[in-house]
Amino acid sequence: MATTQATSESLPVIALMGNPNAGKTSVFNMLTGLRRQVANYPGVTVEKASGIVRHNATQLEVLDLPGAYSLTARSPDEFVVTEILLGLRDDTKPLDAAVVVIDATNLERNLFLASQVLEAGLPTVIALNMTDIAERRGIQIDSDKLAANLGVPVIPIVASTGKGRVALIEAIEKAIGGDKPSPICDWPDAVNQSVEALSAEIAKRNGAAEPVTPYELRRCLLDANGEMERKLLAHHPDSRALAEFVSGQREKIKVSGHSPANLEAEIRYACIADIVSGCLKRTPNTQPTRSERLDNLLTHRILGTLIFVAVMTVTFISVFSWAAPLMDGIEAMFGALAGWVHSALGEGLLATFLTDGVIGGVGSVLVFLPQIMILIALITLLEDCGYLARAAFLMDRVLRVFGLGGRGFVPLLSSFACAIPGVMATRTIECPRERLITILIAPLMACSARIPVYTIFVAAFIPQKVVLGFLPLQGLVFAGMYFFGIVAAAVAALVFRSVLQGRTPTPFILELPSYKKPSIKLILWRSFDRGKVFVQSAGTIILAMSIIIWALLYFPRPADLETKVRADMQQAGITEPVKIENAVAGEYLRNSYMGRVGKAIEPAVKPLGWDWKIGMATLASFPAREVVVSTLGIIYNLGAGADEESTALRQKLQSATWPDGRKVYNIPVVLSIMVFFALCCQCGGTVAVIKRETNSWKWAAVAFSYMTILAYVGALVVYQVGIRIS
Amino acid sequence: MIAQNPRTLADLKASAKATVASLQGEPAVQQRLAEMGLTSGRQIRMVRVAPLGDPYQIEVLNYHLSLRRRECECVLLATDPA
């Protein structure tokens, strides 16, 4: 690793750019052979992915930039792409060349971005991808003529099969250090004059501050309220006067009736039409294409909806139940490993630290992998074949009510299994605001870790009655908890929608790509890649939390405590070793730091109807909510093995009393606990993944705080109202 | 036929074709629509409306694009030469 790092410092750097759906990731994989490093660019959610191209003696570093339709910087994330392209970022080396990946089946639209990149002043190579599909659809592209018209090399490739790899690498090698391409479009005089005027104005006001390139000035003038304008004004001492100057210049740029907003597209598409004429031939379609016929079925009012429900059901079931045996396997494996370590090291601090702290912690990280990898594989499959865009098309109307978009459906549905892969799946949402809201509400969906919590309390306290003649009350309460999560998420979404309104709204623009055969290679790769990212970024946080909670539950351990419990047990005539062990464990736990904190916070949880034992078990389950069941098991001297099916634990809960003899648990208390667990963000993995996906602790903290506060208030209201009614 | 409101993309019936005249509304929305190929003089086709009445699926530059009604209303259509 170290040697690769050292050499990559001096390697030429190229960047891959392209529209979404142009197959950029496949090109990246074809060039680098699936190995890549991922991180985040500081301060934004753009993922920094890079890899090394090796071919004969050549070595190049490739940056995989996020897919974009245009270099118009509307969001900070999009702005990063522009900055990298122009070599303005300190954390990224200036590029030696740009490679624009173009979908051959969609040449004109894809050339829009290419025409912008050509103006950045970098040696550029066009990778004309999916030439096989284009050929099958009767689209003929004369790549030599296109290259001559564009003034840069155009290399036909099929990234999914690796066709054209060598030619592409050789073209990139040749381009590096070579001539800069010339822009293919001329700007009208009005634009050039405004650029000059703005440049002079800045120089006049700023003195000899850092020079701004004509490219940046033009972006500033054309993109009203864009990031370039914001950056320029932010660094300016007299930003209001400059803002007025900029809008004054915009008024001047009215060329043949086009405003600055759509002037650029008018000019570029006119140039593109000239460039492709003579090198692009389409066999005219007299019949609808296969893709259109599929669309007729898949977006059909009735059949399409049925197919959608079926596809989503399979997706949900797969995350929910296919992952279960794998998760059980991982848990069993770590259980066996812990058992082995325990028998090898015996009792003692080191053994307990290793088994309960480290092995338990690593296990609690890896146990999420099956769900993450299965969900990401399925989403990549749906995305790559083109169906995911149709699912978004079908669901958009429903989700829009809550300020979300169609693409939020799959992440939210997956969150019923587990919010961690759900949050990771929000990458397909293009609008940053929608993505953020989806991330923030996803953890409110009733994930599978809530099932054991609901199960133990419903089974122990909700009577096995039948209401209205056929509805079992227990099942009704269970379903009610699911419904409650959805309603809470909907309300939270509406609140976030109004709170986050200040951010620039992104118009809903969803490309519906033609259906194609999905690439198995891409599906497997993406699934492994996301799994790796999860372990690397969330793994350490989850592990650290597990070890801290373990330590709080384990320490302090005064030896006389155990002696005292054993003596008490002997006096009471209890001789079974298991019972004695459980009593010792329970006493240590009650005496632990966590136990003391639990007792200390009792006044805070009493208004919820809870005693300190519930408070402490709830605190201990902040890294993972399902832990509450086994913690209650230890507290009630049943050992850590108690699960939600344990009748012994149910009986202990049913008979638990306050010091004055009143029963601890009644219906309002049970509902208050369940409401708390429905709303609270008791999942270290989710917090870690939100941090990773939003690239900021701020949003992780927002999600954690709002859910925890909501949970407390919700539980308080339920209990206080509950005791007054009953 | 005289003094009718200008027809926008949102008024186009499924499978009907039309020509883009100009764009209106928020500059940011106009810019994005234009970048996706909805420039003046462009031939477009309404493919279908989603089962719940929104969004719309259109064909432009030989590819398919989905826009919400609100964005479709930003696209003014040329009146067809009778």
3D architecture notes:
The complex is a heterodimer of chains A (726) and B (82). Chain A has 726 residues and is an alpha/beta fold. Chain A has 33 helices and 12 strands. Among the domains of chain A are: 174 residues, P-loop containing nucleotide triphosphate hydrolases (Rossmann fold, 3-Layer(aba) Sandwich), CATH 3.40.50.300; 66 residues, no CATH class. In chain A, the strands form 3 sheets. A 7-stranded mixed beta sheet of chain A has the order 2-3-4-1-5-6-8, sandwiched between helices. Chain A has a two-stranded antiparallel ribbon with strand order 7-9. In chain A, strands 10-11 form a two-stranded antiparallel ribbon. The N terminus of chain A is likely disordered. With 82 residues, chain B is α+β, with helices and mostly antiparallel strands. Chain B has a single domain, classed as Ferrous iron transport protein A (FeoA) (SH3 type barrels, Roll), CATH 2.30.30.90. In chain B, 16% of the residues lie in helices and 33% in strands. Chain B has 2 helices and 5 strands. A 5-stranded antiparallel beta sheet of chain B has the order 4-3-2-1-5. The longest helix of chain B is centred in the middle third of the chain and has 9 residues. The mean pLDDT of chain B is 88. Chains A and B meet through helix 4, helix 12, helix 17 and strand 12 of A and helix 1 and strand 4 of B.
